[in-house]
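Researcher: Let's run the pair from yesterday's discussion. Sequence first, then tokens, for each.
Model: Starting with the first of the pair.
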Amino acid sequence: MRYLLCKNPHTFAAGAGLAALLASVGGAWAEGENAFPKISGEIAFEIENDYAFSSDDTAEEFNNLFLKIEPVVKLAFSKELSVNTGLVLEQVQEPAIKGEDRVFDDQGLFVKVLTLDYETGAVHLSGGKMGVNFGTAWDVTPGVYGTDLAAEYEMAENIGLLASYNHDMGAAGSHKLTAQTFFLDTSGLAESAFTRREKTRQVAGGPGNTGDFSSFALSLDGDGFERLPGFGYHIAFVQHTNDTVNSADETRFAIGGRYEFKLPGDIAVQPLVEYVMFDDADGTVNQDRSYVTTALGFTYGNWNAAISGTFKETEAPDGTDTNEEQLQVSAGYQFPIGISVDLGYKRGRNAGVDTDTIGALVTYGYSF
């Protein structure tokens, strides 16, 4: 890639210092499995460089080198009761000039998760700032760019209440039913440090931005089937209340499945498919939207490869359709020290404009 050095060392150093601080606190309070309180967690590090080298719109041709650090910290007061925090350091703004190259620019730190959790047996109760359990392709699709377009329907950063129950049916698998009520976080927890990101205000309205627990979600997840080992499913429904004048409540539905099996030669294959549908998308009456994601991942020892595609269609109230799609291929290797290096290519098409991008991704995970 074209850039090797950081022209914004203060932000880079702040991220590295944050990670080092969080890592150093692990185990500092109490020692032993049954000693409380105690701190545990993990930190995911990513450095990615994307080079959009060809596009029908020359303003889409640029290079972007950026950092992402995601610390997850659990403060356990007992086996059942804990406070869980998820922070994210990433790019939080679009470039000031469309199409300009960026090197670690516009990196900001914010709170993605902050919850009080109680777990005992099959029951999990939680409250605070959380994501909504809707869809999985935005999180688990393999490949450097596998999650990019599906990320549009990730439902992160809501103030919510959650209750889930996990039922183990033996050979028939384990199934978790989750219920949530929530609204979009517009509080001070939605601010970011180092670089200020654009925060949604409650007065802006829109689905879920109501300031009260009027939106809800139901989901069902399952795996562990004796006759179909390696298979898992996800089904979810969301009622997204919208208080905006002359607008509609948005409803969402997701269904997906994934499967893992092995070929001769110890090659693991992971197909995935997910379908997501929006009714009255964005609160616009009679506007519908759908996403279809398909993927095929391969692993062999420390090697991996993936091919995936996400296809998005929006039907406006007047019946006109807008289509967007993204196809990607990638491959990588995880070194014995835990560092992974992946290379990828994607072609995105939006309103008839094709853009080709190549990229490199370096990742590392640390637990404490």
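Model: Moving on to the second of the pair.
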Amino acid sequence: MPVLLNPKYAGFERRSGLDWQRIPPGTQPDPASNVLHIGLVNNMADTAMGATEQQFLTLLEAAAGDIQVQFSLYALPEVERKPSGQRRVGSFYFGTDDLRDLPPERHPDGLIVTGREPRTLDLRDEAYWPGFQALLAWTQEHACSTVWSCLAAHGAVLELDGIERVRSQDKHFGIFTCEHATAHPLLAGAPARLQVPHSRWNSVAADRLTEKGYQVLTRTSDGAVDTFIKEAMGIKQNAGLSVFFQGHPEYEAEMLMGEYRRDVGRYLRGERQTYPLLPRDYFDAQTEQTLREIEAKAQVCREEDLLDDISDVLSCVEIDNTWRSTAILIYRNWLEYLSRKKAHGAI
């Protein structure tokens, strides 16, 4: 069943750049219906906003099955944006203040909150931190379930329980094999070993999470935390399932490729000191060899023209999306959880 996008203004589908066909302009979710209303708080950088919208829309449509879903876009007003990003937010997004002002019967049944590449070492110094705090407090009282993605997960556990993220020596970058750590309905039907994309420098420690009442659901093969949850009572009966992804199950096949090219460009322009690692278990052996040959040239002389060589190589690469089926399954389980809560009047 299609996911229906609830636009801020009519004509969103013609002006947003989204490849989305079934969008009834101006539609508002009916609180009395069985339709699930999912909100995406998209904090990604201007250049990644559209891709992030598309990733979650297509993932939810694949996961929805016979569940009807309406999808709304929200943005933190404090996120620093260039004029192009400001125009996109102003045209297509509701503000998180609009979300907080909704009457209870219009609250989203579930929220997804993304992160963004940090500009400061301490997340509490980010310009959007006060708005993030207000959003987090609202979810703890009013949201049946919220998915916190990557940096948003780190920000949430920092604010909720003072759990600081720890920077790693090397970037966690690539496709990681993960294993179940705890049985949970979100993992129902998932294989014992699942693939998940990761792209992060920082991690939160499992022991700090368990001390504060979190459950680690999956771990990467090196023992690091992948997915974890926490349940807390709010003003609604049985409200408050928070789901935290350190990885990016929503990523489409080419996302890590684009991030690798971006980071190589930063190295060649002198914006970073070290050449980026190749994403693990992502490229085929021949592509890795060719990229390492370009890396060797770049280590001798940083020439921006080498970025064209990188682009030429990557333009011929086809990535096998080994994580898509599991991502669909987990989000299907999440939607079914919300549907059960709604059917029992807990939403």
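Researcher: Give me one sentence on the second I can quote.
Model: The longest strand covers residues 166-180.
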